[in-house]
Amino acid sequence: MLVSWAAISVLSAEKVAFDRLTDVVLDRRLEAVQKLNPDRKMAMQEMFTEAGCSGESLREDRVKGSKLPNLVCILPGSSEHILLVGAHYDKVKDGEGAIDNWTGVSLLASLYQSHKAYPHRHAIWFVAFTDEEAGLVGSKAFVKQMPREELARLKAFVNLDSMGAGSLKVWGKRAHRPFTNLAAAVAKSLEIEISVMDVDAVGDSDSHPFVDKKVPVIDFHSLDQKSLRLLHTD
Length: 234
Hints:
Elements: H1 5-13, H2 23-30, H3 37-51, E1 58-61, E2 70-75, E3 82-88, H4 98-115, E4 123-129, H5 137-145, H6 148-152, E5 154-160, E6 168-170, H7 177-190, E7 194-196, H8 208-212, E8 217-221
Parallel strand pairs: 3-4, 3-5, 5-8, 6-7
Antiparallel strand pairs: 1-2, 2-4, 6-8
């Protein structure tokens, strides 16, 4: 993957700070996977609280057409701009839904925890969506419920869906190109393998409603032809 000099210069100019969590914490949250969607919602709520996101920082947004809400954890910023990081917590009937998408959603609380001690220019919203598997119900409702003024302040949506089944990948056709360049630059600096793998021929994701509203997006996943066959199966 090519890395633009613009992306490198941005990384050089901006001071990026975060705490790196231990593998013990990440593994424990991954192993907290539940088989029923209501239990998955409760487990996510507990992880957000454990990470320090509670009270007014953590809210439930009711979703029309779903029995379960979206969970929203907010890390304040010094400006009005918003960055949104999302993943869906629901699963299909078959299997445990560990790859799709407990791997993605269980990272949200850890990402909040790793960034909470540092000041941010942009507010970061971490959103656990309901009913992605039923037709992007949670993410569609989230976008629809955002006031126009708030949507105008949303500068990016980062989607985490089906991680951990292989090396890190970006949905290239859907991604905002500058974000792809930045992801490549960050991966290079952290010595993380990353590549482009498009999945538009086999499925959709919660980034779609944001694309429809002209919000720049990037989807991270780990799927290829081999690992894709594991999804939605026992």
